[in-house]
Amino acid sequence: MISLFSNFLSKKKTQRKMEKKGLIGSRKLRKQDETLATAADKSKTLGFIILTLVWVTCIGILILPKQRNTFGHLVKDQLAPETVYAAMSFEYEDKEKTKELIEEVKSEVPLIYKINSKSINTSLKRLDNILTEVKKRVESESFQTEYLPEEGSEVTDFVASLPANSVDVLQLLSQHAVNSLRRELKGKLFNGILSKEEISKHTSVQMIQIADTLNRTRSAAEISSLTTKSKATKAISEAVCSSYSLENRNTFFPIIEMLALEVVYGNLLYDENTTLKKRAEKSLLVEPAIVEIKKGQIIISKGDKVQIKD
Predict the structure, then answer these.
(1) Contact present, 223 and 231 (Cβ < 8 Å)
(2) pLDDT at 102 over 90
(3) pLDDT (average), residues 139-164
(4) Per-residue confidence (pLDDT) for residue 302, from 0 to 100
(5) Closest C-alpha among 261, 111, 125, 267 to residue 201
(6) Alpha helix stretches (DSSP H) within the chain
């Protein structure tokens, strides 16, 4: 009897220990993963704590900002769906800005023009030929013979087209005046004369640099300051007529100016190869345009159009 009672107490004691550990409930052995659920069933405090933790977690997920990488989803010209911030500090080259800087530096390099070395001799020879043909015409007319131009000859065509009074003035030119005309013509051609066609290609502030017949490069100057054909002929005529009296000057000036117009040419030739070479050399000195981005800096704002650089 005592033995039976002792066994009963021992079983009850063992059963209570197992119940405390959550291993048994209503006489059935519970699995280990049901222990927390059983504890929550029996403890209102524990159940409340668990519910509170679940609630806080859900709220946190809803209100905390999303950390997503949107770079891979952005395409050119789309509107950014959200503001993108830099995750770290970094630097990059703005290639478009670098290209702009290179083009700006290139545009600052003057255009190189070379003097056509053959132009001086060509103009002087044409002048001599015209004066020679004027003498031939005067001689022909003195014998009452008509002066006939040679076929295909521009010089004889020009002399044949001259009015009689112009021929009379030209035959009165002294050797001193002829020498002065040759000297002034040679000087203006040596300095360089720019044609109207070349001037029309550029703005008045375009910088020009001239390389003379000895390949010496002069200081750069605005294209508007260079000598043109009209400026050269006027300057030549004024220089030649400066030794004449005022009365004779008025007589000789228009004739000499007409003659100068016939022998003066634009003799500055654009040297594209040298210009491009100098511009390429200058562009190598341009430093890349580096953009510095700080961590947290806005890269693109929501609603902005996405550009290639973004």
Answers:
(1) no
(2) yes
(3) 93
(4) 79
(5) 111
(6) 2-20, 35-42, 44-63, 95-108, 117-142, 154-161, 164-171, 175-191, 196-199, 229-241, 246-263, 272-283
